[in-house]
Amino acid sequence: MSYKKTACLLTAVMTILLCGCDEDTGSIGIFPDEDALTHSSDVFKFYTRSIALDSVLCNSYVSYLGNIKDPETGTHIQASFATQFHTFENYKLPDKQFMFPLNVDFKQSDPVKCDSCEIRLYFNSFYGAGDTPMKLEVYQLDENKILEEEQDYYSNTDLTQFVKPGSEPIATKVFTPTDYTITDAERNSSTHTNNVHIKLPAEYGSYIMNTYYEHPEYFRNSYEFIRHVCPGFYFKLKSGVGTMLNISVGTMNLYFKYYDMDSPDTVYQALTRFAATAEVIQATQFESEDLHKLVDDPTSTYLKTPAGIGTLIELPIKDIYRDHQTDSVSKAKLTLTRYNRSESDEYALGIPTTLLMVRKQDMRSFFAKRQLPDSKTSFTTTYSSGYNSYTFDNLGRLISYCQHEKMNGMKEGGMTEEQWEAAHPDWNKVVVIPVKTSSTTDKYGQSIISSVTHDMGMNSVRLLGGPNTPLEMQVIYSGFK
Q: What would the pLDDT profile of 176-195 be if each residue is shown by its tens digit?
């Protein structure tokens, strides 16, 4: 064979060898058998039941006020709230010597006068009829028992403990969500925001203004203002059923007069404002009645917000791994189907948009620690109007996690399966709860969940299931022959 032919043959052989090589050297000497990998599927029954959510963490910036009755279930929800007011940094009023009333023999000890004082509770939406009359009472909070910023407040917190002991209401107000004291043109104006207008005694405004001149250091920030001047107010619904206000912000306004320092005959009318916003604490207390009838219903389960009912699911993990000890659960899927309402009602409560599934043992700490769903022990899903249901279709990691937790726990504790399960009764239980989520965009342009809070809206759904009606979970396995 000539040198040229030999070179060509070697080149061809090398080309074949190079084309057959892979940059991943981890598979050298390994020849996987595609037929050895198996997939199988099965369907398992599981059961659900309703559980009462006695309290939920109120870390929403919206406050609620009202009393409503769910037309579908007949349950009542009543809400009252407490709020603080904040002051701007380095707050200032005009020089005292130019404040009304002007005194030619001015003394720093002379009091100033507030013309009027008011609170306005602004709301963008409400549940119920706009002409429902409601009666509201306003109480001063106790300066010796402050709502603390670092403290978590739950929906069943007794807010009356923060009211001045033995105090009477500083103000009362009868209102309707639609304000009929103003004209239709004013009410429909683009600059108008629905609000409850509460008149406080003018003397209270005078007290705040005179405190400023005596102790301006109390107004340098909200911390000092709340602890030395105005701890806040408690708003309690005294009577009325049929309305729930979603209050986004409140303001306390003080109206006064002052004189032009260069022209004492010139009088200006002015106001100073303190706001109840996200900068300060707003805590809502909910009271729900007749929930036990729904919780004990064996024919279905419920989801009710804001502080009502969740659905507990007992995952059939033992059944899933029976005869599949060496297989992996690659996918598990379950669906919760909503019952249609028996009849339409213009005041029917809403449908929760987003649900959180979390292990029962982690339910309270998930919110207290401000955690996010990790797709292993906690998940979110959204309502499908087309299928009238909620679907969780990525539960394989959860089932594997719970199984491995049990097996490792039995080994480390030297326990039998029965002993370990008796010591950990909630090991295979999860709870489904309505939530609200916020999202941000990461550096790749992907939307990611940035916060999860309890859904504090007026929502209610009835779900197929219950202790007497099993549901089905679909499971796909992967394994080797």
A: 999 998 999 998 898 899 99
Contact predicate 43/473, CB 8 Å? yes
Distances (CA, A) of 204 to 69, 161, 400, 421: 36, 22, 62, 61
What are the structural domain ranges in the chain?
Answer: 40-54+290-480, 76-287
Q: Report CA Rg, the chain.
A: 32
- pTM to 2 decimal places: 0.83
d(CA 57, CA 474): 33
Q: Prior bond to 101 cis, omega within 30?
A: yes
CA distance 233 to 84: 7
pLDDT digits (tens, 9 = 90+) for 394-429: 999 999 999 999 999 999 999 999 999 999 999 999
Q: Is 88 exposed, middle or buried (0-12, 13-18, 19+ CB in 10 A)?
A: middle
Tokens 């906690």 correspond to 378
Coil, helix or strand at residue 1: coil
- Alpha helix (H) residue ranges in 22-138: none
Query: Cα 446–451–455 angle (5° rounding)?
Result: 120
The answer to whether the CB of 471 falls within 8 A of the CB of 48 is yes
CA distance 273 to 331: 57
d(CA 74, CA 374): 37
User: Who's near 478: CB < 8 A, 6+ residues apart?
Assistant: 37, 38, 39, 327, 328, 330
CB atoms within 10 A of CB 75: 21
